[in-house]
Amino acid sequence: MSDETGEHEVRFRESDRRVLKRTWTGTFGMVPAWKDDSWRPAAATPLDYLRRFAMHNALFEDDVCLEGVIVSKKPSNLPGIVPGGASMVISQRWLVAADHERPHPNEDEIITLMEELGFEPIPDSFFGWFSESKSLLVLDAKPDNFVKTADGILPFDLMLLSLRDSE
C-alpha cells in the first residue's frame, strides 16, 4: 500500500504493522511558523522535523522512530525543489480505528482531547492549539489527523513547535 500526502510518501509495513513515511526529496516536512500575523505551516529543517516527532512521542505517548535518511540524485516530486537531496524516513504504529465506518473524531471530540491535554485554541490559525504551561504549539489538529481507536483518540501527523526551542 502506498499513498502520497503533502509531506510524505506513505507505505504500510506488514511485518511489524507500522507505517513508513518518507519526506519528499529535499524537504523535511512542515513546522509551525509565525507568518502574516498568524501561525501557519512552513518548511521544516531536518532538526525541526526530528524535534517535531520527539515532542509528538512525549505528548501523545507515541513511538515514532527514525528509520533512516535517503540521499537521492533524482529530481524532487515537488516544484521548486533542487534535484537531489535527502529524505527522512520515520515509522509509526498503525492506528486501528474502533469503528471503520467512522475512523476519525469530530471537531468537538478533538476540542475535548486538546483541552484535557492543557491546550487552548488559537484563533485564525491552521487548526492551531497552544499550551502555555508546556510552551508548545500544535498545528493541523484537524479530524483527518486523528483516529478513534479502542485506546481513545490518537493523533498521527500533527505539526508541533516548542517555543522554548525557538527562543
Describe the model.
15% of the residues lie in helices and 40% in strands. Strand 2 (8-13) and strand 3 form a beta hairpin. The longest helix is centred in the first third of the chain and has 15 residues, at 46-60. The radius of gyration is 16 Å and the shape is globular. It has a five-stranded antiparallel sheet with strand order 1-2-3-7-6, with helices on one face. It has a four-stranded antiparallel sheet with strand order 8-9-10-13. The protein has a two-stranded antiparallel ribbon with strand order 4-5. With 167 residues, the protein is mainly beta. It has one domain. The model has no long low-confidence stretch (mean pLDDT 89).
List strands and helices in order, with pairings.
Elements: E1 2-4, E2 8-13, E3 18-23, E4 30-35, E5 38-43, H1 46-60, E6 65-72, E7 85-93, H2 107-116, E8 120-122, E9 128-131, E10 136-139, E11 146-149, E12 152-155, E13 159-162
Antiparallel strand pairs: 1-2, 2-3, 3-7, 4-5, 6-7, 8-9, 9-10, 10-13, 11-12
